[in-house]
Amino acid sequence: MDISTDFMRRIAHAAAAETLPRFRSQGAVANKEAGSFDPVTEADREAERAIRALISSEYPEHGILGEEHGSQNLTSRHVWVIDPIDGTRAYISGIPVWGTLVGLTVDGDAVAGMMSQPFTGELFYANASGSHYEGPGGPRRLATRKTTELAQATLFTTTPALFKGDARKRYDQFETKVQLARYGTDCYAFAMLAAGSVDIVTDPGLKPYDIVALIPIIEKAGGVITTFEGGPAEKGGDILAAATPELHAAAMAALRG
């Protein structure tokens, strides 16, 4: 099935109405994980409510999986996967590299998705017509770079600290093989890969709502995104995305050690 651009925009606007007024407002932050720090804000919860309401009104028979408000009707062939603010740590720090992620799976495969960054006025989305951008500079189709060699690649990860034990050693060695490595930006790094500014993004331990929306944006722009084992990324896990099949294969080999 196809999801209209208009519906993507409506979701983005509904979420922004909840997130933007609270951004840089020094609002209350709760911690969802004892012994660690997994922040959640009122903006997360209210943005997801707004998104769920739109989906339920437009597609009442579809299922929904959201980070903040759980799941409903997951036996449906069509399931929407929502992260109202991917990058809550950036959000509470006042840095505009967070985004609203909403993706649609059909029989488990991600077929449409959007990442909205309302502070910068950007919308990255993919549907049956391809992968697209709307924002400063005007609308355009998204396309990954043609980089095939690690030595020419720009790499992003949220933080190397997420790699544990031997995986950290392999990551550190992998980083020495690329031209440039940068940290942070969560979902924004994946969007920049689709936009042709970044070549590789890798993050371990992702949840479905962290990645489902980004899969079609990257794939329809020409990129490759899988788990470290080469499997589908829809269920999350240790994720590797790259601009070309050749670069993806080289990065996977390097990460495996």
From TrEMBL:
EC number(s) from the headed UniProt entry: 3.1.3.15
Transmembrane segments: none
InterPro entries xref list: His_9_proposed (IPR011809), Inositol_monoP_metal-BS (IPR020583), Inositol_monophosphatase-like (IPR000760)
Name listed for the protein in its UniProt record: Histidinol-phosphatase
Keyword Amino-acid biosynthesis: yes
Keyword Metal-binding tagged: yes
Catalytic reaction(s) noted: L-histidinol phosphate + H2O = L-histidinol + phosphate
Molecular function as annotated in GO: histidinol-phosphatase activity
